[in-house]
Recover the amino acids of this structure.
């Protein structure tokens, strides 16, 4: 069933858990995520970052995500992740996405704030919710490895409070020490920063670069206010590993066998992530 992001995150806030936002650049991803969520009877977020446009057009995958959400037996939100232009965000809204993220984190504060206000006004006209980013989260949401360097500008709590109040966003992606892609060393998460931003703003916070974080760091981040965790790189790697394992076992002649193996491996990985985020 298609459910608003704000509703999902409000329940997560009340229950003190987080919901996984999983990237969906292929049909195998979509099927794996829904299969995992339904097997656990847990809500889930199907995400499509603008950078994945090079993999599959939004106009092709968008309707598939919406149909999968509507047909699912669990609550599902369809979310545009890391939208960098208002034009692209509006394209997603017209397709039917009920949540969008504007990422103006590389812009000066004033410009990020002004653009985010415009996105909020636009999204509200479609009945959609808005996530925005403040601070610098290194790496690439499509899975380009960031290594262990998470020294980009962390989110300033005072700036975050001003940003949230003036834009009216529904959730905030804060820079807390994580990074997109694969970690070459354990991220150093600033737990005090999570707690201060959450306690002062009362808004659900989003962890980007969530795959590869330790179980202990997940638990502490969620306890302090993280309510949505973006997860892709390690799910994608699980799919690759599933294909490698099949190729080691037999001489595969049909591509769909590889797709099925990847889907099964990714579903198993997503199940583990969901259980960690929302026991």
């Amino acid at each position: 069933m298609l459910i608003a992001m704000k509703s999902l995150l409000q329940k997560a806030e009340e229950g003190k858990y987080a919901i996984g936002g999983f990237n969906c650049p292929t049909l195998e991803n979509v099927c794996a995520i829904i299969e995992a969520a339904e097997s656990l009877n847990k809500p889930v977020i199907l995400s499509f970052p603008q950078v994945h446009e090079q993999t599959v057009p939004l106009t092709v995958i968008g309707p598939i995500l919406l149909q999968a959400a509507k047909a699912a037996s669990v609550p599902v939100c369809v979310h545009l992740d890391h939208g960098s232009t208002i034009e692209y965000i509006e394209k997603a809204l017209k397709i039917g996405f009920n949540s969008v993220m504007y990422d103006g984190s590389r812009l000066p504060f004033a410009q990020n704030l002004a653009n985010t206000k415009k996105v909020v006004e636009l999204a509200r006209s479609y009945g959609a919710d808005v996530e925005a980013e403040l601070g610098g989260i290194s790496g690439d949401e499509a899975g380009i490895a960031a290594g262990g360097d998470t020294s980009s500008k962390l989110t300033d709590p005072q700036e975050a409070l001003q940003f949230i109040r003036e834009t009216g966003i529904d959730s905030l992606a804060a820079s807390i020490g994580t990074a997109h892609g694969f970690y070459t060393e354990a991220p150093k998460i600033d737990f005090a920063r999570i707690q201060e931003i959450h306690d002062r703003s009362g808004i659900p916070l989003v962890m980007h670069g969530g795959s590869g974080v330790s179980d202990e760091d997940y638990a502490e981040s969620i306890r302090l206010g993280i309510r949505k965790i973006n997860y892709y790189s390690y799910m994608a790697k699980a799919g690759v590993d599933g294909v490698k394992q099949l190729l080691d076992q037999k001489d595969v002649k049909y591509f769909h066998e590889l797709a099925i193996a990847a889907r099964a491996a990714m579903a198993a990985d997503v199940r583990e992530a969901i259980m960690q985020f929302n026991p």
